Amino acid sequence: MTAESRVVRDRSRLISVRRVAVIVALTAAWCALWRSASAANVLSGLVVSSVASGAGVNAASGVRLLPLLRLFWVVSVDLAVSTAVVVREVLTPTDYTDEAIIAVPIPVSARRHLLFLYIAITVTPGTAVVAGDDDREDGTALIYLHVLHDDRRDDVVEHVELLVSLVTRAFPSAMTAEQTEVVS
């Protein structure tokens, strides 16, 4: 066995181990959502997670667990912090909000993850995606966000860039630059 064939064999084993880990994690999440680990939930979870882990344009490149965990952590912290901010705004007699719609550019590398970004941004109280433009001539996308505090515009843009970075690392795209141009 040559070193080259050993590397290919090891890589295919790694991908299959990674896919099994994703299927197990998704099945566990499925059962947790149904609040029961019954045989029906486990079997249906295995079917759904098998399809989900093997379908889509990014399936060939897999899921990276550590960036995915960091992404979930950042979104969870966003939920807690933004909920506290909105509760404070609601309970404060004086209105300190200065609402605005801001445009945030999304690079070509993250175009495949726009739905995930829309959800991660909109699920946090106080911020919502109100529109998106993914048909720009330069191949980038532009999302329009409603924010409660216009003075935090730069922080929001920086945070969206962090989310873009995390989601593109967690779900690397198998597409090449040439394929991305064709999609554009």
How many discrete structural domains? 2
Number of helices: 6
Low-pLDDT segments, ≥5 res: 176-184
Rg, alpha carbons: 20 Å
Kindly name the structural category: mainly alpha
Ends distance: 43 Å
- Give the averaged pLDDT, no decimals: 81
The largest sheet, given as strand count, sense and whether it forms a barrel, is:
3 strands, antiparallel
Helicity level, as a percent range? 55-70%
Order of SSEs:
HHHEHEEHH
**How many distinct beta strands?**
3
Q: How much of the sequence is in beta strands?
A: 5-15%
Mass-distribution shape: globular
Spatial order of strands in the largest sheet: 1-3-2
What does this protein structure show overall?
There is one protein chain. With 184 residues, this protein is mostly helical. Helix content is 59%, strand content 11%. The protein is built from 6 helices and 3 strands, in the order H-H-H-E-H-E-E-H-H. It has helices spanning 3-34, 39-54, 65-91, 114-122, 153-170, 177-183, and strands spanning 100-106, 127-133, 141-147. The protein has a 3-stranded antiparallel β-sheet with strand order 1-3-2, with helices on one face. A hairpin with a 7-residue loop joins strand 2 (127-133) and strand 3. The longest helix is centred in the first third of the chain and has 32 residues, at 3-34.
